[in-house]
Amino acid sequence: MSKNYIVGFPRIGEQRELKKALESFWSGKTEFSEVEKVAGELKARHWNYQKDAGVDFIASNDFSLYDNMLDTAIMLGAIPKRFRDLDGKEQYFAMARGDKDRVAMEMTKWFNTNYHYIVPELSLTDVYGLNATKLINEYKEAKELGIKTKINIIGPLTFLGLSKRVDRGDTYELFGKILPIYEELLTQIAQLDDDITVQIDEPIFVKDNQTATLSLIKPTYEKLANVSENIKIVVTTYFEHSNEATKVLLHTPSWGLGLDFLYGEDNKESLELISNSDKVLIAGVVDGRNIWKNNIQNTVNLLEEISAVVSKDNIIVGSSCSLLHVPFTLKYEEKMDSELKNWLSYAVEKLDEVVLVSKIFAGDTLSSSEEQLLADNKDANNSRATSSKIHNSDVQNRVESIEKIERDGAFEDRIKTQRDILGYEDLATTTIGSFPQTPEVRKSRRDFKKGELSKEQYEKDMKDYIDDCIAFQEDCGIEVLVHGEPERNDMVEYFGEQLDGYGFSQNGWVQSYGSRCVKPPFIYGDISRPNPMTVDWITYAQSKTDRIMKGMLTGPVTILNWSFVRDDKPRDEVSKQIAVALSDEINDLQEAGIKIIQVDEAAFKEGYPLREAKIKYYESWSVRDFKIAVSTSWEKTQIHTHMCYSEFNDIIRTIEAMDADVISIETARSGNELLKIFKEVGYKQEVGPGVYDIHSPRIPSVEEIVTQIKHLLEVLPKEQLWINPDCGLKTRKWEEVKPSLKNMVEAVKLVREEM
Ligand code: GLN
Ligand code: ZN
Fold first, then answer.
1. Under DSSP, is residue 15 helix (H, G, I), strand (E, B) or coil?
2. Is the Cβ atom of 436 under 6 angstroms away from ligand 1?
3. pLDDT digits over 681-725, tens only?
4. 652, 667, 651: which is closest to 723 by C-alpha?
5. Residues 267/241, Cβ–Cβ less than 8 Å
6. Cα 675 to ligand 2 centre (Å)
7. What is the pLDDT of residues 238-294, one digit of tens each?
8. Residue 316 half-sphere exposure toward CB, CA atoms < 13 A
């Protein structure tokens, strides 16, 4: 008999119902009871999807009104001081989003995904205590619908590992306070039924150098697994292998182990050990992070490989991770090309895949609809393997034959030529690219897309906006100008739409944090650039000013990291194709008279692998591809890049190797602390550390910016510094941007006079 398992299901709703309900409640338009009603309907619908598909292990407590880490903090009573005078939903949402008196808790990326969790704040003096209401209610809700769920919880070691201490110090020092609450939790869970599976997520185990974590595994799971005979514990990891932890877990009385065999292929090294234990293996073999239809035959082969070592009876077939990271259902993709659509599989479709794979693997007889599904799956995979939409030999040949990776001229020579031609002063002022995306600009773009606005009118609207941007920047005294990016809805989508090989979904929303969702485009085929993508806009802008207009592109690694990427080619090859397309764009821009070109790599750091062993390889191709993209630039063309980070300590050499002439970075919130690394390593190229934080509506004063510039000058010489905001200004309002930039220019003036 086959058995199958889903690690977790998305919750925002197939029509983003939860997002809408939350935002309506937050804006005061509806009561909280409406949110609760929608949440109840969504949970029921999601459980039923899984039940109808024939899933054996369906999760409860994978739902959340905002975030599971936040839920866990609440469950453990880990409420930061500033929220303790609140309770209930007021407290919950204030922790998530802040309110007029309280700053929100910090939010950060969940491992190497684009999901963001709330970072719990712990302190040695805090008193913690169990509040299991949400978890218990959710279990009961499902049970009333006739669905017996496994209960998902975030494990104590991952919870501690991802939290921060407000009183400084190691979060693991709180182990002794937190573990008893988990024991109490399991005691309560044990009273719910006489046979309950609890999935304890411990993705922290997939990281390197976890000596402290590893030493706590045994005490933790010995305790937890012994709380009650009613409970079967499955410890689950994903996104990478967790071989070090597996070794220890096998010697604890837990029941099962959930491992990711797609992103953690090295988990195979543990199979021998697992086979010698009594553990059940939940084998994550259906991709929970990508949108491609599973290749059923290949997946069954992978399972056969696993079961050559571990007894088939001890294997349960599962998703590689929670399906939270993929969109809901293909049902609403009405406009998508049918051939493309036939290659895809979202969360709901993946349920059928998991079930089908588990049946074939177990040798169950298939129903006629399952036979059909299998046949369709073969067809889809065959069509994808051969489709001319995907395979373009011209692109492949050109990309393979690329030999020029280095730019012309060494930086030391380039920068002299550039400074001669461009003639900018020390502490030159610029911005990162975008200016406020006003409701009018958005509307114009939207109407044009829908065909409700003529091309002429659309272009006029954009050009008017560009004119205004230029007038403001000239008036304000900024030295290197930008056109403001009004034509771009998103820095990846804009390029994706103009590249061959890129697909777009109508409803492929994935939760990024809270109520916020993103709709990543997907790369299905060989990438090429049929036409210039930015040249008309930038040359128009340059024609309207005597100052230097900076061309603006998104870099290959960021385009890749913010898209779903084809799984039939290695990422580094896909990235190289994008780089080659961008290198043509850069050449066209400089031929058209553009003297500075910025290639944004906002997501460069996001793509870093979780395991050190893989970092070298990532760096090798990501740096190569940035360099290929700018390899066409002449010596005199100045290449800028921008990254939305400040933590460069580990990767400063890699950044330097990208060989951009100028890099702008996000430092406003860290003073000059994080800049020191640039000095320490003798970083050569020019640097534009953000002098004010664009994430806040606050207008920085002249004095404040002067102080910030002086701090920067303590670390780097004026010849090496540019002055700019932290990031693009598109999320801000003009009323905020105008005075802020005026103050920035004024501050530079004062500092220059003083020098
Ligand atoms: N050029 C882009 C902008 O200004 C960069 C955005 C980013 O780094 N996230 O909006
Ligand atoms: Zn940025």
1. coil
2. no
3. 999 999 999 999 998 888 999 999 999 999 999 999 999 999 999
4. 667
5. yes
6. 16
7. 999 999 999 999 999 999 999 999 999 999 999 999 999 999 999 999 999 999 999
8. 22
